[in-house]
Structure formats: C-alpha cells, structure tokens
Specification:
By secondary structure, the protein is mostly helical. 82% of the residues lie in helices and 0% in strands. It starts with a helix and ends with a helix.
Length: 278
C-alpha cells in the first residue's frame, strides 16, 4: 500500500513539474516576444506564447492568454500607425484589415478604433493628394473620412480645394465654409473668397449685375484684400449706372493692387467716370 502511495505521489509531483515546465516555456516565449525587433516578430512571438499558455493548466494561464491577445491586437494597430506615418496609405488599409481580423478572432469590439484609423488614413491620403495637386484623390479621400464621421477641419479644406479644382463652386463653398467653422480659417478664407469671385464673374457674364455685386461683396467679406473683387464689382456698378460706387471700387482695386498690370487702364476708366459725372 505504501508503495502505491509513493508511486501516486511521484506521478503527482511529476505532473506538477511538467505543468510548471510548460508555464515557464510559455513565459519565456512571452518575454522573447516582448523584446523582438520587429512588430511582425512580436506578433508571431505572442501567438506562440498564447498557444503555450492555452495548453497549460496553471490557474494564471487564461489571464496570460488574454494579455497575449491584447498585445497582438495593439501591435497590429501599431503597424497601421507606422504605415500612415510612412504615407503608405494603401498598405495601411491592408494592415488595418489584418488588425481588425485579429481583434475579431479574439472577440474584441474595435469598431470605434477601426474608424479612427480609417479617418487617419483617409485624411492623410487627402492631404497627400492636396500636396500633389490631385483634386480627384483629395475629394475621394476627404469624402470617405466624412462618411465615417472622422472629418476634421483639414478634411473639409481638402474637399473644398478639390471641388474648386473640379469647378464645383457650390460644393466647394459648402466644404470651405465648414472648414472655416472648424478652425481652418487661414487656409479656407482666401479660397472661399475666390469661389464667390467665380460666381461674381458668372453673374456679370450673364448680365445679372445686382447679383454680381452681391457675390463680390461675399468675396470681400471673406477676404477684404481680394483686389479682383473690387474690380469686378466696379464693372457691375458701371453696368448698373452707379458711377460713384464704381469709382470707389476701382480706386480700392488700385490701392490693394498698385502694381496691377491693368493699373493704367483702370486709372483711365476712373478719370472717364469722374469726367462723366461733371
């Protein structure tokens, strides 16, 4: 009987030793993963450690499995951030898919985190498109950021700029006014002023001179130094037979832009209008 007891005890001790050995191997894999040189190697290492912990019967093993899973997801999202910083936005989208897949594998809800990174990707791509003067790409990526509610002031500026390049004046105005509201006044206002100047030109061409005056006024509201707005409004005032207003605008045009190529011509016009008043 004593021999049987000793045998059972020996087996129990051996089992405990085996469990301890398995746990120690899992911890070693975990520690190695933590100091791996690349994020890809870290992910692979934590997956190995996770599987080793899952095979352990130690009471602390489930908590260690959860830590490994969190590390895998966090590092995967870190790769997305690295791709964004490198301005490799196509790669960032692929990396984001991998990060979301890892989170879903472990039953983690990362929808908000996913959208935040998508916003970073689309806003970054819109910024890069603006730098390259690629209006279509700026519009496309800005609109994607807006669709997932991750737009910032710069998003609307890039959208407004892109739409202005595509001659969508009303769309550009709407986007640029939003950019202005969201803290991008310095960038948005000059471009916004020019969009109203475009509407002024169209109104003058269509013979809608009162509307041209209003549109020039809006252009000046957003940029009081928009010299061409004074000139175009001056032309509209001439057509409306409002000569004092026209003279004032032409003089303001020369004040704001004294080196204008047509300065001499405008001076002659002012002289003619003043002579006609007498």
């Amino acid at each position: 009987m004593k021999k049987i007891f000793v045998t059972v005890l020996s087996l129990a001790v051996a089992a405990v030793a085996a469990f301890a050995q398995d746990y120690n191997a899992a911890m070693e894999a975990y520690n190695n993963a933590a100091v791996a040189e690349t994020k890809a190697a870290q992910i692979a290492g934590f997956r190995e450690a996770m599987n080793l912990f899952a095979a352990c019967e130690d009471e602390d093993a489930p908590a260690q499995v959860a830590k490994c899973q969190d590390n895998i997801v966090n590092i995967s999202f870190g790769i997305v951030t690295d791709d964004i910083k490198a301005k490799d936005f196509d790669k960032a989208l692929v990396s984001l898919d991998a990060a979301v897949a890892a989170a879903q594998e472990f039953g983690q809800d990362v929808e908000e985190r996913k959208n935040k990174q998508l916003g970073n990707i689309y806003n970054g791509a819109a910024n890069a498109a603006f730098g390259k003067k690629d209006a279509a790409a700026a519009v496309e990526n800005a609109q994607k950021a807006i669709e997932i509610n991750e737009a910032v002031g710069a998003t609307y500026f890039f959208l407004g700029w892109g739409l202005s390049q595509q001659k969508d004046v009303d769309g550009a105005i709407e986007a640029l006014e939003k950019a202005n509201e969201m803290g991008m006044s310095k960038q948005a206002l000059p471009l916004l002023s020019n969009q109203y100047l475009t509407k002024c030109q169209a109104a003058n061409k269509a013979g809608k001179f009162a509307e041209a005056v209003d549109m020039a006024g809006k252009a000046l509201e957003y940029n009081p130094n928009n010299a061409n707005a004074y000139k175009l409004r001056g032309n509209a005032y001439v057509s409306l037979n409002k000569m004092p207003e026209a003279i004032a605008d032409f003089e303001k045009y020369l004040e704001v832009n004294p080196n204008a190529k047509d300065a001499e011509s405008i001076k002659k016009t002012i002289a003619q209008l003043k002579a006609a008043k007498k």
